[in-house]
Amino acid sequence: GAVVSQHPSWVICKSGTSVKIECRSLDFQATTMFWYRQFPKQSLMLMATSNEGSKATYEQGVEKDKFLINHASLTLSTLTVTSAHPEDSSFYICSARDPRTSGSPQETQYFGPGTRLLVL
Amino acid sequence: KQEVTQIPAALSVPEGENLVLNCSFTDSAIYNLQWFRQDPGKGLTSLLLIQSSQREQTSGRLNASLDKSSGRSTLYIAASQPGDSATYLCAVNRGSTLGRLYFGRGTQLTVWP
């Protein structure tokens, strides 16, 4: 299957600093990427949908000024957690929509390995 | 709004048992349904994708079925092994413009030797 990478895999930062997480589709061009947050023993919570060349679509309750998303190219989307606080500590996962199956019954997404964020 | 429920939340079995994991969804207008595996601290690995027109899909010891009219899917794992220990997530694709997936909370499976 296709490969999606995330960087960094884990990050520890001080409260008040900003952290950028990168999501890359390595062998296909993704016009749409998704950012999820996952709490321990919980399912994935969709934060926002990132569309190349346009503004991200945020889910209800997700602060767009807090979680900045930029999808500047067809292979890269970034999530920046601004002024991070301990409550932002979580596991963040991105996925990329496969354009080759988009709009078909085989439509699927490929997921990155996740980024563990710990804010002290 | 699509809601996805998975039962049981956790399952612990001895090696060799055949297992059934359940997934139900509230809106039967779906494009497809996927089963994913997630190991602790890792991303998701797709196991099986069932299109809305299909009844089941098989891969090795895994068999997933779909009953769209009743809003149910099952993942059958034959002859379970300790390496099958992971969280199994069910996700529904409603076929929206953006291709959003709706996830269940998962079933945490432990297979002990």
Q: Topology of this protein?
A:
The complex is a heterodimer of chains A (120) and B (113).
Chain A: E1 4-7, E2 10-13, E3 19-25, E4 32-38, E5 44-51, E6 57-58, E7 67-73, E8 76-81, E9 90-97, E10 109-111, E11 115-119
Parallel strand pairs in A: 2-11
Antiparallel strand pairs in A: 1-3, 3-8, 4-5, 4-9, 5-6, 7-8, 9-10, 9-11
Chain B: E1 4-7, E2 10-14, E3 19-25, E4 32-38, E5 44-51, E6 56-59, E7 62-67, E8 72-77, E9 86-93, E10 101-103, E11 107-112
Parallel strand pairs in B: 2-11
Antiparallel strand pairs in B: 1-3, 3-8, 4-5, 4-9, 6-7, 7-8, 9-10, 9-11
Provide an overview of this structure.
The complex is a heterodimer of chains A (120) and B (113). By secondary structure, chain A is mostly beta strands. In chain A, strands 2, 4, 5, 6, 9, 10 and 11 form a 7-stranded mixed sheet that branches. Chain A has a 4-stranded antiparallel sheet with strand order 1-3-8-7, with no helix packed on it. Chain A is globular and about 45 Å long. With 113 residues, chain B is mainly beta. In chain B, 0% of the residues lie in helices and 57% in strands. The mean pLDDT of chain B is 93. In chain B, strands 2, 4, 5, 9, 10 and 11 form a 6-stranded mixed sheet that branches. A 5-stranded antiparallel sheet of chain B has the order 1-3-8-7-6, with no helix packed on it. Chain B starts with a strand and ends with a strand. Chain B has no helices and 11 strands. The chains are: A mainly beta (120), B mainly beta (113). Chains A and B meet through strand 5, strand 9 and strand 10 of A and strand 4 and strand 5 of B.
